[in-house]
Structures are given as C-alpha cells and as structure tokens.
Design a protein that fits this description.
Layout (H helix, E strand, L loop, with lengths): L2 H10 L7 E2 L2 E2 L8 H14 L3 H15 L5 E3 L1 H7 L3 E6 L10 H13 L4 E6 L3 H13 L2 E7 H6 L1 H9 L3 E5 L6 H14 L4 E3 L10 H9 L1 H14 L5 E5 L4 H7 L8 E9 L10 H4 L1 E5 L2 E5 L24 H8 L4 E6 H15 L5 H15 L6 E6 L7 H8 L6
Helix pairs in contact: 3-5, 4-15, 5-6, 5-10, 6-8, 10-12, 11-12, 15-16
C-alpha cells in the first residue's frame, strides 16, 4: 500500500469536525434539530473516553453480550469450494443473535447518561429492533421501533421478540413499506420530541455523529478478529468479506484492517436483476445524493429521489449507504461486489448443511461471495467473513418461498 493511500485511510479513521468522510456524510437537518444533534455529538465525545462509561460498556459486552465472539474455521465449506480457507467471525452468537447489540448497548447507555426517557429506531430485518429493545429493557428506557409492514410480515419472530421485550412496534405503512419508509417514520416521530427521545440509528448512516458513533461501537468486531485470527493462524487474513446495506457490520470488521495490506470486499444485494427496483446495490449502481440528513452513494429514480429497492434480506433493503463506505469506494480501498437473491439462499442452505450454522439472509450474501471468491484462490489463502447474524428470524420465510427447491 503506497503512502498516499495510507494518508487517505488515516483521514478516514475519523470524519472531520463536521462529520464528513471526504465529500460524504455531514449533517443536513432542519434548523430545530441542529442543536439537538450537536448535543448528541458533544455527549458522545465526552463519554467515549470516559473510563467509567468504558468500564460499564466493557462489562456488558463481556458478561451480557458474551464477547468476544469466536472465529471459526469453516473447514467443511472450504473443502467443498476447493480453494481458499473460509473463516467466520461468529457475531451470530451474540446475545440477541447479531452484531446490532454492539452499538445498541452503547446508544442506550448514552441515552441514559443524557437523561432521555425513550429511545426510538427503525429496523428492517428486526435485529436492530430486538437489540435496541433488549438494551432499553436492561437500562430502563421506553422503546419505540418503526418497521415497514412488509418486513413485519417477513420477520414475524423478531416482531414478537420486540413486543415481549416491552417495545412498541409501529408499522410504516407508506411507500414500499420497508426499511427506507421505517427510517422516514422514525425521523418524523423523533422531530416531534427530540428533547425526551434519542433516535438510536441502526447503522453507520444518518447525520453526524451517528456514522462515526455506530462505527466506533461496532469496531470491537475487527479488533477482536485481528487478535483471534493471528492467534489461530499466525498471520492476518488475506481477505475480508462482509455484507453491506447501511454497512455497520462491515465497518465493524473493516476498521481495524484498513491500513493493512489485505483485500477487503463489501457485498451488496443484487436482488433479482439490475433493473431499478429489483436490487439494492447502492455502491455498485448508485451515485452521490442526499438521504436522511447525510450525503452518500444513493440509488435514485429519474427525478433524483431515492429509488425503490428489493432484496431477499430485509436488513439490506436501503437505497443509501454509510458515508464512510462511499469514501472507501472512491479511494478504492474496499471493493464492492454483488450477490443475487438466489446465490444468498444457496449459501444459506450450504452453510447450514456443511457446518451446522444457519446464517441470517443478510450474512448469507457475504457467505455466498466468500464461497465464490474461495474457488478462485489457492488453498494457502484465507478469507474472514463477518457472519453478522443468525437465521432464526428467516427460516419461516425461506421455507415458504424457497422450501420446495431444497426439499424443505
């Protein structure tokens, strides 16, 4: 890696004071929200290096979430592919079943410190909603989760979990009734009372400081993985792979490795085709635009509005993407690839039947790309996949829609 690239990556480790990664990010909110957002930014800057806060978060990560999550050598799947060795960072083993608990605990503790009474959020696959409802119950806050009606149907088990945990699930009934509409609904609710509520954004998206803050809380994934992988193999992985919707699990893994000489791949959903409305391949097919208070690559219709998106994985169906991902694409540090719905479902089944692990459909996109990549590489190469969540939430949907194809 040359010195110019290292300088660019050093800049990308943190956004500038206005929340920009290169030209992406920032904070474009109504004037009434500007002081509220600045209050959140100031509060986060104050607590992130506070030893008491860090000790409390570390205690919960270890004794509540169950960290560190293990790194597992998927030998059976690797043998089936006949090439590079595939390893999995097992975020699916976290309490609540995904990486989302990493930042939800941090955001809930921050809200408590700020004297908020309620935390609100959007959710697509429901994993962020479950994790936030869990964190809210733990620290004693009210919790409202906004979720598209389509996703409420697809991810019914997670809807039930949120309700059991005491959260109120609010359907987003406009537009396509999926993740983008859930974000719209949550933002509208937040504007009504930003003083008593904290909008705990569920990915590395939104206005500053959320892309930075969520990334920082998620970066424990990569820090752990770097140490674990070296302990297992004596070296760094040759390749990293993670799925990208908003991109929090990917930034969680990638951040610790950005200045290392390894290949990094973000995997987006190609859905059923590359026609507008059939996919959610934002970085592959989008162009710079504005959504939900920040600038990023964005899938846009002919009017320049956020385009319709589609993917089998509810947690990836967002027309925008994290601003740091947009920056990493432009400086060519991360290569962004795509996986179709069919390839993701095949990987879902393959990982289950080869390794006894049922992955989330979101994570299945990363697994599918790792399987393809492994075939092209020699056996002494390694691939570390962020297995960002488990597939309990998806099994009914997979069986209903695809069961006959797999003897289910």
């Amino acid at each position: 890696m040359n010195d110019l690239n290292k300088a660019q990556l050093s800049e990308s480790v943190m956004p500038d004071k206005d929340g920009f990664f290169g030209e992406y990010g920032g904070r474009f909110v109504p004037p009434m929200l500007e002081p509220i957002m600045q209050e959140i930014a100031d509060a986060y800057e104050k607590i992130k290096d506070d030893p008491v806060f860090k000790e409390e978060l570390y205690y919960l990560q270890k004794h509540y979430t169950g960290r560190p999550s293990p790194v597992f050598h998927a030998q059976n799947l690797s043998k089936k592919m006949g090439g590079a060795q595939i390893y999995l960072k097992r975020e699916d083993l976290n309490h609540t079943g995904a990486h989302k608990i990493n930042h939800c605990l941090g955001e809930a503790l921050l809200a408590k410190r700020m004297g908020k009474k309620k935390i609100i959020a959007e959710t697509g696959a429901g994993q962020h909603g479950v994790a936030l409802a869990t964190a809210a119950a733990l620290v004693g806050l009210e919790c409202d989760i906004h979720m598209g009606e389509v996703d409420i149907y697809k991810e019914h088990p997670n809807v039930v979990r949120m309700k059991i945990l005491g959260a109120k699930v609010i359907p987003a009934t406009h537009g396509l009734k999926t993740l983008k509409e859930a974000v719209d609904s949550a933002f509208d609710a937040y504007v009504q009372d930003p003083v008593n509520q904290l909008y705990a954004i569920g990915s590395v998206v939104g206005p500053h400081p959320f892309p930075m803050m969520v990334r920082d809380f998620q970066s424990i994934i990569g820090r752990e993985a770097k140490e674990q992988f070296q302990e297992l193999t004596g070296k760094l992985p040759d390749n990293l792979v993670a799925c990208v919707g908003g991109g929090s699990n990917a930034m969680g893994l990638f951040t610790a490795f950005l200045q290392d000489d390894i290949s990094i791949y973000g995997v987006e959903p190609a859905g059923t085709s590359f026609k507008t409305g059939d996919h959610a391949a934002t970085l592959s097919l989008g162009k710079p635009g504005m959504i939900h208070g920040f600038k990023c690559y964005l899938l846009q219709d002919e009017k320049g509005e956020p385009a319709a998106v589609n993917t089998v994985a509810s947690g990836l169906d967002y027309p925008g993407v994290g601003p740091q991902h947009s920056y990493l694409k432009d400086i060519e540090r991360v290569k962004y690839e795509t996986i179709t719905d069919k390839e993701a479902i095949d990987a879902f089944i393959d990982l289950a039947r080869e390794e006894g692990i049922i992955p989330a459909l979101e994570s299945s996109h990363a697994v599918a790309y790792a399987m393809k990549l492994a075939k092209t590489l020699p056996a002494d190469q390694t691939i570390l996949v962020n297995l960002s969540g488990r597939g309990d939430k998806d099994i009914d949907y997979v069986v209903e829609k695809y069961g006959k194809d797999y003897g289910l």
